[in-house]
Amino acid sequence: DWTPNAFVEETVDELKEKLGNDKVVLGLSGGVDSTVAAVLLNKAIGKNLYCVFVNNGLLRKNEFENVLQQYEGMGLNVKGVDASARFLEALAGESDPEKKRKAIGRVFIEVFDDEAHLIEDVKWLAQGTIYPDVIESVSATGGPSATIKSHHNVGGLPDFMKLKVVEPLKALFKDEVRRVGASLGIDAELLGRHPFPGPGLAIRILGDITAEKVRILQEVDAIFINGLKEWDLYDKVWQAGAMLLPVNSVGVMGDERTYEKCVALRAVESTDGMTADWVNLPYEFLQKTSNDIINKVKGVNRVVYDISSKPPATIEWE
Ligand code: XMP
């Protein structure tokens, strides 16, 4: 019978055996898989695990600082790299969803490669790949490994991709990863986090990206997500987020006519993201959230709720 405790014990032994005194580099994303992989490896090889957490400037509000602190609190040997400016620069003026993804993937690889080069004599690249990633090979949806794979044919391989690869979660399903994480003592809140796309808010800002649009969407998203938590709805939703639409609409504020941005809120139920249904959130919650957003976020005067299922709509709008 499979148990998380036995898995941890066995895997830690195997990793010790396999990795010996070698150095390993791993990219942390703030998500469940890379975190569990890191904690497992940390248990096996400690400071020989070099974690890199890149801020692409497209994360949720305060996410980089908060999660980095959490990682440090877990005793991980982690370096936070704030490359926001580099990502924003690469995205400037770009509106095409796939080109935005490509630009983000390219910059991520550059930044990660630079960091890997700073680790003297690193031998291994660790990844939080799980079984569904393996069977899908390159999933349509992406994820860090897919981002990397889609760049195989662009010029030569970056050096870090020539490292030997270690993937301790490769045989596990998501729920097993969560159970392993719990048995490793990882915070339940971290393990229960909604999925978040690698390109982050870039694919929730329709059209081109600017620092100001990122700031607006971060504020909106934080109000929505914190509200879901306060109303005890967060764990009933598989994934939620806000989209900043490339549309201005007319509103009134006092005696003034406004002409400002519209945001769409999306919350879905799903098991694997392949199909999804919109969640029937309470009207009172939607009402309060909409008021909060419009009152507190400058530049937004309209909020709509997305009631489309996947298929045919996707979860993300880009
Ligand atoms: P869609 O929008 O295709 O999303 O219904 C399905 C799931 O995949 C996530 N997603 C991505 N994740 N890179 C990622 O790492 C991407 O480019 C990407 N696009 C979509 C999305 O958040 C949802 O969980």
UniProtKB/TrEMBL annotation:
So, what pathway does this thing act in?
Purine metabolism; GMP biosynthesis; GMP from XMP (L-Gln route): step 1/1
Residues where ATP binds: 29-35
> Can you give the residue ranges of the GMPS ATP-PPase domain?
2-193
Keyword annotations from UniProtKB, A to Z: ATP-binding, Glutamine amidotransferase, GMP biosynthesis, Ligase, Nucleotide-binding, Purine biosynthesis
GO molecular function terms here? ATP binding; GMP synthase activity
Q: Which reaction does it catalyse?
A: XMP + L-glutamine + ATP + H2O = GMP + L-glutamate + AMP + diphosphate + 2 H(+)
* EC assignment: 6.3.5.2
A single Gene Ontology CC annotation of this entry is: cytosol
Sum up the protein's function in the record's words.
Answer: Catalyzes the synthesis of GMP from XMP.
Q: Subunit details for this protein?
A: Homodimer.
* Protein name, per record: GMP synthase [glutamine-hydrolyzing]
Query: Organism, per UniProt?
Result: Pontimicrobium aquaticum
The primary gene name is guaA
